[in-house]
Amino acid sequence: MLIFVENITSRLTYTLDFIFKERDLNYELTLDKKYFLGSKSPKFNYSRETFDEGVVSMIPSSILFRKGVYNFSINKNLFHNEECLTINEKTDPFASIFYILTRYEEYNSTLLDQHGRHEGKNTVLYRFNWHHRVMCDHWAEDILDYFKHHCGFNYQKKIHHPQIIPTFDIDKAYAFKHKGLLRTVLANFKDLWKKNADKLLERRMVISGSKKDPYDNFDKIYEIHRRGFDVKLFWLLGDYGKYDKNISYKHKRHIRLIKKMGKIATIGIHPSYKSNSNEFFVHNEIERLQNILSKHVQNSRQHYLKMTLPNTYETLIEQGIENDYSMGYADICGYRAGTARKHLWFNVLTNQKTKLKIHPFAYMDGTLNEYLGMSPESAQEKIVELFMEAKKYGGDFIFIWHNDTINDYGHWLGWSQVLEFTLRLREIFE
What is d(CA 268, CA 299) in angstroms, rounded to the nearest whole number? Predict the structure, then answer.
């Protein structure tokens, strides 16, 4: 596909790479009007220049040809067969992809929750009820279909078989075990004050060894690995705090557990709650995990999904992280970046494509149960909806659970069936 433009920018090539190269297709950009008109290739004019009536043209939005971050008026309109964004009243599916894929709107947004996180319910995707769809892929394929019908571009849609990738955040390895005398005594006093006799008894039974710790579900994760899944774990090793309550990274039993799980799963860092505002903590936590595993840590996912663009990702890159799995929201399910495909992060402020690979996830256990208040049955229906998007448009189906949510314990009673259902999606629908 030959595309005429007035200026070639990093934003433009990033967007076109997503449309074409992600689907093993080729494109060429040109600034030469004579070369463009003389070419026998399928051609498209993406500029303000005017050509003869036979040349298919679109006047672009300015977002792909500017630097910095601006506040645009955003609405929606129909392009070909798909609704897309109008940016400053210009209907532009190319700009739509860039706007959503880069999370452009988050750079200027001040609408944050109590944890300093962007909420899915405040996004453009949610506003137009697109959050459960891989909209960037919808737009990419709509563009390609448009080129096929209007420019003679040879394009055939592929059949996709999304990989099911279970991931687990290890925020608290154990509910009662290995927490040290002081934490255990204080926890007992707290339960006494609240008259929580059941919890007091359970703690005593677990510590004495007469009952298994309810969070010790690592055998279940091991079994998932044995079924052939590429299991990924994200381990919290931050210092103790209000939102960082794992057992000490120095504890021998904890170290032994991490090493054991590292033999069957890829372990990444789970940067602590407070680390999002201090790269010193991130550095220390990564170093702790690398020392335990005796190898370079490549993967990361933010604890509480706390993420600030571009700071969080810049810090991860500086610390040698190659893959991030934080791209999703806590309050809603769906595709934060409008795709299930792995893609390279583009820093909107520096106007550069980076080497950090973003792996979007479709849902988190806590979102379904705690934020949305779904039943296990309704959760399964939502998961099917999300999976079918990846199946139709490509990408991986990544989802988040925790070691403490997979054992039908407490308010997670009945939810192990939801995890099992997710693991069987390909078997069910293929």
Answer: 4
Q: What are phi and psi of 18, to 5 degrees?
A: -65, -40
pLDDT tens readout for residues 172-186? 999 878 776 657 556
What's the start-to-end Cα distance of the chain, in Å?
A: 33
**The whole model's pTM is what?**
0.95
The stretches of 154-208 forming alpha helices (DSSP H) are 180-193, 197-208
For 47-89, what is each residue's pLDDT tens digit? 999 998 889 999 999 999 999 999 999 999 999 999 999 999 9
Residue 38, burial from CB neighbour count under 10 angstroms (0-12, 13-18, 19+): exposed
Torsion of the alpha carbons at 314, 317, 322 and 324, rounded to the nearest 10:
-30
Structural domains of the chain ordered from first start: 2-101+132-150 (no CATH), 164-175+213-429 (3.20.20.370)
Strand partners, 4: 30, 45
